[in-house]
Design goal:
Helix content is about 55%, strand content about 5%. It has 6 helices and 2 strands, in the order ααβαααβα. It has a two-stranded parallel ribbon with strand order 1-2. The protein is globular, with a radius of gyration of 20 Å. The mean pLDDT is about 90.
Length: about 160
């Protein structure tokens, strides 16, 4: 091998092991709030209650003018170096609307997931019973999950049965 260990470290170990594992862990941590299912609660109801819509981005500055130039620059840097990598590495494809999947898992129109989710949100809002949780920015999703986990009651591990669902 022409480059040796440094080549392997920089081109294989770092991206395929370290970066991939970090991205995978962040995806897993923010996919659900991972709260224990309550007694008598169905798996589906628990998933619906504990799933998030994770969107990558942040609010734009108030106006497009020179006065807000520094805010626009900061916004662009955040998008290029934080939100875009999060979207590409952590919440790829339809995973931003993973919560919709738990509600309508049998729908085969996965290619329209964003529009179908938004239609469902609008419908529920009109009925006054919207229970979707939308979080913008992976950092906020991670914070939300940890806050929810911190608020959980203590879990007694004796007599805890393992279950796949």
């Amino acid at each position: 091998m022409a480059f040796g260990g440094l080549f392997f470290l920089l081109n294989v170990a770092l991206p395929y092991v370290i970066v991939y594992q970090i991205a995978s862990l962040l995806h897993l941590l923010t996919e659900h709030t991972w709260c224990m299912r309550q007694q008598g609660e169905s798996v589906r109801d628990s998933h619906i209650k504990n799933c998030l819509g994770r969107f990558c981005g942040s609010a734009c500055p108030p106006a497009c003018s020179l006065r807000y130039g520094a805010q626009w620059l900061s916004w662009c840097i955040a998008y290029l170096f934080f939100h875009l990598p999060c979207r590409m590495l952590i919440v790829q494809g339809s995973l931003v609307c993973h919560d919709w999947h738990h509600r309508f898992g049998s729908v085969h129109q996965w290619y329209d997931y964003a529009q179908l989710r938004e239609q469902q949100v609008v419908k529920l809002m009109a009925e006054g019973r919207n229970d979707y949780v939308d979080i913008w920015g992976l950092n906020y999703a991670l914070h939300y999950v940890f806050i929810r986990l911190s608020a959980m009651d203590e879990v007694k591990t004796e007599n805890l049965r393992y279950r796949l669902s």
